[in-house]
Amino acid sequence: MTTSIASPFEYHSPETVEEASRLLSRYGGGARLLAGGHSLLPLMKLRLASPEALIDLGRIGGLSYIREDDGGLAIGAMTTYAEIVRSELAAAAAPALAEAAGEVADTPVRNAGTIGGSLAHADPAGDLPAVVLALDAELVARSARASRSIPADRFFRDFMTTALRGNEVLTEIRVPGQGASSGSAYAKLANKASHYAVVGVAAAVRVEDGVCTSARIGITGAGPHAVRSRRAERILVGKAPGESSIRAAAQRGGVELAGQFNEDVHASAEYREDMARVFTGRALAAAFERAMG
Amino acid sequence: MTTGTTIGTSVIRREDARLITGNATYVDDIKLLGMAHMAIVRSPHAHANILNVDVTRAANAPGVAAVFTGADIQEQLGSLPAGWVLPDMKMPNHPPIAFERVRYVGDAVAVVVAETPQAAADAVGLVDVDYEDLPAVVNAEEATQEGAPQLHDDAPGNVDFEWEVGGGDYEAASADAEVVVRQRLINQRLIPNPIEERGVVADYNRGTNQITLWTSTQIPHLVRLLFSAVTGHPEHQVRVVAPEVGGGFGCKLYIYAEEVICGVVAKILARPIKWISGRQEGYLATTHGRDHIADVEMCGNRDGTITGIKTTVYANLGAYLSTFAPGIPTVLFGFTLGGPYRMPNVSCKVYGVFTNTTPVDAYRGAGRPECTYVIERLVDMFSQEVGRDPVAVRRKNFIPRFSNGHEVSTGVTYDSGNYGPALDRALEILDYRGFREEQRAARREGRLLGVGLSSYVEICGIAPSAVAASLGAGAGLWESSTVRVHPTGKVAVYTGTSPHGQGHQTSFTQIASSELGVPLEDVEVFHGDTDKQQMGTGTFGSRSVAVGGTALYMSLQKVVEKAKRIAAHQMDVPHRQVTFENGVFYVEDIQERQMSWGDVVGEAYAAKNLPPQMEPGLEAVTFFDPENFTWPFGTHIAVVEVDPDTGETKVLRYIAVDDVGNVINPMIVDGMVHGGVAQGIGQALQEQAVYSENGQLLSGSMMDYAVPTAEDIPSYETDRTVTPTRVNPLGVKGAGETGTIACSPAVVNAAVDALSHLGVKHLDMPLTSEKMWRSVRDAKAALRAVRRERAIAGRASN
Asked: In the structure, how many helices (H) and strands (E) does chain A have?
């Protein structure tokens, strides 16, 4: 309860994804992947998590990159937040991603923590889940034998639970091209202690001929896992963006979470519900400004 | 070679090189041959009877050397005492390891000693304790009510003491007053967060019967005394070393269970024992601060004259008495309830109450932030009630300038004060009128800007032993120094103060170098080792320079006096004719008659031609006990902006004008003000220890307890006025706590000011974004309701 020393565990550092996947199978749920460790290791030190084994992905080559891919981005799962923040490619193609990565915790965490680690950990208050939802990303999972692509929409299942299977390693995040005159943004109310999101909202919009043709909103921190806010999105599509449509959409920000808003020592459900609206408005305003600017 | 004085100059801190290059030695850096590691089994229950402790599994675990329960070694461990005893105070037993009942989450129930920290941590989970859960109480006021769970048989109603102080006749004053404002104020519980958590290494020498404790403490000499008192081990066979200490803020100012346990276990097992606290463990087992529930009121007249103040406080002591706990909410709280104001009528009553929570004791400022918060919130509420500017009300009620003592109605005597100029300077830095215009313009745009003031007087230089003893202090509060001049002329300074971030190595060097005329690099300051400086009190209550620095100054005077006599003898002149300046002894008007510092020191040790009857050598010891405390003062101003949509409250500007008397090193004083203000902003806006009703600490880690970071604080604007004290020859008052004492009320006053046009009159700390969001929302709703009613009434009257 009061220790800061983890329980004993075995340590593996495979050199291929296949080997990592086989190790996962061998431990049958008793192993955890180490991909930065800034969420997992504190839990282990508090003995809130006591995995039998850690499988360190740090020695697998070729999992850390940001490259252009079919008009969009392909990002290796072991790419750190700091690398995303520094990437001109990411800033141009998906500003919400760079913005969210820059809001994660503090410098040491951003230097070690990875995008794949964050998404696979699926902390309900993590920043990046909201962003991949808004950017309509695909998450590539590989096992020893197979590879598949999971739409972000189907990735976050429940509190710290994802669609990844027991033997799968998240290897790549594919962000589709957002198209001309598109914009994205991330706005967050940070927990003063942990800097996790009390509420974080990512918005990605496209404006063609003065009309919003696409809008996607991802909300994190507010409920048991990150969600799309489709009712807010629907308000926007087909309308000319402006203060009144943003306000109307913001009013529906997070309605999908009604009855499921988190309540803890940091914020009540009632406050989170209103902050989902406020930050939906802020993220949308910034995203539209980028789309039209 | 440095000549002349460096007093008043920002000499670069001499301790920083080792601190920032990883070359400092903290407790955890101490590794002794054969050392075992101790981990503590702590209660997960806030209140429970211990039915059985089964250590079999733990004792048989790999690498475990021994397991002790409270029952095993209660005789050797004794009971932890309170070092401050108030009249009619109860002294419940405080076993270092609980053996019948646990009274808070974190209470120790057993210890495991193992070959490695890992093995010790693993074995903790193998100690099987059967508990019988008891109802718990965490709120100090509720704990005093009928039917509340009782913690100690000898403290009925959970009340440890009822303490009063006052002056004049408040009840008569309030009956005569035109205006009385009343408020319940919550001064929330805080968790101190020094960068270095506590830790202890204990070593026992069977040959000499000496116990050595390396411990992260502010008071090595008092730990020696109290360790001896608790365990019965002879005091002269105990050595306590505070090596590098990474911060304290008051939470390392006590005898702790782990110090006693480590020493006793080291003696039993005859091998060195190390215990290092983790952060979460520290949150449970290291003292907390503040936690007052106070009903307060202030009375006065419509012209802005304040005539009295009254407080009734429930001070949460936690589950047991920590060493200084009874002195904090009483003596350090009540005597200054008049603040810098003419306050003819004061009434203060404090209930010290036990609850099923971590013990509460001093936290930076210790009683004085609570006091200043009460006064300065009330002054603002009073100003609002009489419809006058809070600046004008403060100025109207200030005690006029005095330089040689001013007795206030609570019976204490402030040393010197000149409160107006500090206020004026702070207002000038701010441009108060300009700000009010900006605020009006901002309100028209829907922005919420506010300004808050806090004028304060604090008790520092915690010392005069006789006065402190009459108020309950269990030990003398003098300070000692030794100045030892080596035959080569180098100077070793030993102090009984025990710095843990305050920069004594630099400021004490400046004092010695300036008095002896030797270069800074020829002086070394030693502290924190009871075998080097035999006697001492420690570092707390902004006392180190005012008391310890003066003790040093007096030893330096003795050394200079003896050196002058040696020089006079050598130069064959009466010693009164010798002048000592910049390291040279000379005779006025006689050029050739002069000796250097090194020549005279050499003669002192060569001892071939000393004055008759003079002993060889050159060193001096002083115990200094001043006749009064010191009373720093000042005015701080905060400017805040509240986001009307989210409630986020940001401190835009922070102005601190302090008067701490003379200043040895301005950079160090600025640094202490900066750190204190950061902690004050932390309390005002975001820090809060939260317990569930059944006594679980919900803000149990840094993921939940919001220590402020650089992004939470503005760039400070600081200045000083200088009103020296006559209490000590250096004219210094102490500067370690002004930030936390002044800051929190300034920030809260600013936040209330930002919402005042919406009808908000008070907000309790911490001003979290949700609390502010709710206040803005509720205030706006109330205003709308009023407007609606007026409209309806208007229609009806038509």
From this structure: 11, 14
Shortest distance between the Cα of B45 and any Cα of chain A, in A, equals 12
A 246-265 near B (Cβ less than 8 A): 265
Give φ, ψ of A100 to 5 degrees: -65, -45
Asked if ipTM goes beyond 0.90, one says yes
Map tokens 């939906």 to a residue: A280
Structure tokens at B336: 């200054």
Chain A residues within an 8 Å CB radius of B61: none
Mean pLDDT value across residues B157-175 = 98
Nearest residue in A to B707, CA atom: A193
Judge whether A150 lies within some domain.
Answer: yes
Helix (H, G, I), strand (E, B) or coil at B382: helix
Shortest CA distance from B682: residue in chain A: A192
CB-CB neighbors (< 8 A) of B709 in chain A: 106
Mean pLDDT score, B220-224: 98
Going from the first residue of chain A to its last (293 residues), give the mean pLDDT of each consecutive group of 10, the final group possibly shorter: 82 98 96 95 92 97 95 96 97 95 94 96 96 98 97 96 97 94 97 96 97 98 96 96 96 96 96 98 98 90
Q: Enumerate the residues of chain A whose CB falls inside 8 A of the CB of residue B102.
A: none
Contact across the interface for B124 and A3, Cβ inside 8 Å: yes
Distance from CA of A193 to the nearest CA of B (A): 4
- Per-residue pLDDT, B588: 84
Residues ≥6 apart with Cβ < 8 Å to B99: B50, B69, B70, B71, B74
Instruction: Decide if A5 and B121 are in contact by the 8 Å CB cutoff.
Output: yes
CB contact under 8 A, A271 and B773: yes
**C-alpha distance from residue B518 to each of B523, B551, B680 (Å):** 8, 19, 39
Q: Are residues A243 and A159 in the same domain?
A: no
pLDDT for A3: 67
Q: Is A275 on the interface with B (CB under 8 A)?
A: yes
Taking domain B288-462+628-778, whether its CATH number is 3.30.365.10 is answered by yes
% of residues, chain B, pLDDT over 90: 96
Topology of the domain covering B34-134+194-248+252-285: Aldehyde Oxidoreductase; domain 3 (3.90.1170)
Question: Is B723 strand, coil or helix?
Answer: coil
Are β-strands B238-241 and B210-215 bridged in parallel, bridged antiparallel, or unpaired? parallel
> CA-CA distances (angstroms) from residue A81 to A101, A111, A112, B634?
5, 6, 8, 45
**Could you give the number of structural domains in chain A?**
3
Q: Rounded to whole angstroms, how far apart are CA atoms A263 and B761?
A: 28
Q: Determine the Cα–Cα distance for residues A212 and A235; give it in Å rounded to an integer.
A: 10
Contacts of B362 (CB under 8 A, 6+ apart): B250, B251, B253, B287, B289, B324, B328, B332, B540
Which CATH number covers residue A205? 3.30.390.50
**Could A191 and B706 be called an inter-chain contact, meaning their C-beta atoms sit closer than 8 Å?**
yes
Residue B708 structure tokens: 């402020």
Assess contact for A150 and A138: CB atoms under 8 A: yes
* Residue at B21: amino acid letter: T
CATH number of the domain at B478-624, out of 3.90.1300.10, 3.90.180.10, 3.30.365.10, 3.10.20.30? 3.30.365.10
Segment B257-281, tens digit of pLDDT: 999 999 999 999 999 999 999 999 9
For residue A129, with 0-12 CB atoms within 10 Å meaning exposed, 13-18 middle and 19 or more buried, which class applies?
Answer: buried
Cβ distance of A193 and B703 shorter than 8 Å: yes
Q: Environment class of residue B349 by beta-carbon count within 10 Å: exposed (0-12), middle (13-18) or buried (19+)?
A: middle
